[in-house]
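Severity: low
Component: inverse-folding endpoint
Summary: output formatting inconsistent between runs
Steps to reproduce: submit the following structure tokens with default settings.
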């Protein structure tokens, strides 16, 4: 199996690169500098040169608040780039595994979101990711869209931000009324590689959207408290969303139901607390 990974410098891309190296897999890891997915010609040339058995799209515009201003760029990467990959994946009869987000939902549901629940993104980031999903779904490409949430494990993650802020402050205020499932980048990478191995087998037919996030359900405040529980000199203060206004509106609930990925691929939800301990 030969794998083409786009967005190889991102959180999940880096985790994929590490696992691919550890497993000795044949892969072409393309950073944004090496492959601009918004340029169809470049995408086509890259895929036809690599001739992968599966494409994993880890490239995305993820600056949620900045997207409210950089609208064209967010859509170019998250919508048009996704469509470009789907087109060439269809042409080459190559499965496409695509990472999406919990932000495609409006957060109004009381329980965990199913793949079949109605979407309603509140932000440009969420809207651009949803349109990317729709372009892939409308194509004839064999595809898996993996919606995930609250990804951590890279240098720019919430975990690293909290630890950095705690170095200089004695009190941190964190939103307590937004709930989700923090997800380790490593666990996402492991899941994508497992899915890649399964979908490249003959007779696979369960294409479509899947949910994957960490457990247990938690608020940003609870997550931050766990991250900093060893820092006895730092107080984590719970505040409402209204107390921390941001350019982009975020869903109050983005917990994902992950039973489908368990049933089809045998993939369990990761325990984010255990992953947090491993991260140190």
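Observed output (run 2 of 3):
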């Amino acid at each position: 199996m030969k794998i083409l990974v786009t967005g190889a410098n991102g959180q999940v891309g880096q985790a994929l690169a590490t696992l691919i190296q550890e497993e000795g897999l044949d892969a072409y890891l393309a950073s944004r500098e090496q492959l601009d997915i918004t340029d169809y010609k470049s995408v086509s040339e890259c895929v036809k040169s690599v001739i992968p058995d599966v494409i994993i799209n880890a490239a995305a515009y993820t600056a949620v608040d900045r997207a409210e201003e950089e609208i064209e760029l967010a859509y170019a990467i998250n919508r048009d780039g996704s469509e470009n990959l789907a087109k060439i994946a269809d042409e080459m009869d190559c499965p496409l595994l695509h990472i999406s987000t919990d932000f495609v939902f409006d957060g109004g549901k009381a329980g965990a979101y199913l793949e079949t629940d109605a979407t309603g993104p509140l932000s440009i980031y969420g809207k651009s990711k949803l349109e990317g999903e729709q372009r892939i779904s409308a194509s004839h490409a064999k595809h898996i869209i993996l919606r995930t949430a609250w990804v951590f494990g890279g240098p720019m993650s919430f975990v690293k931000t909290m630890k950095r802020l705690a170095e200089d402050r004695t009190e941190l205020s964190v939103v307590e009324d937004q709930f989700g499932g923090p997800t380790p980048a490593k666990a996402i990478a492991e899941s994508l590689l497992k899915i890649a191995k399964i979908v490249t087998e003959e007779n696979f037919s369960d294409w479509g959207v899947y949910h994957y996030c960490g457990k247990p359900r938690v608020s940003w405040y609870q997550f931050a408290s766990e991250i900093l529980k060893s820092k006895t000199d730092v107080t984590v203060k719970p505040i409402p969303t209204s107390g921390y206004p941001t350019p982009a509106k975020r869903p109050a609930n983005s917990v994902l139901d992950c039973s489908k990925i368990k049933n089809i691929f045998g993939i369990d939800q990761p325990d984010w607390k255990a992953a947090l301990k491993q991260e140190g």
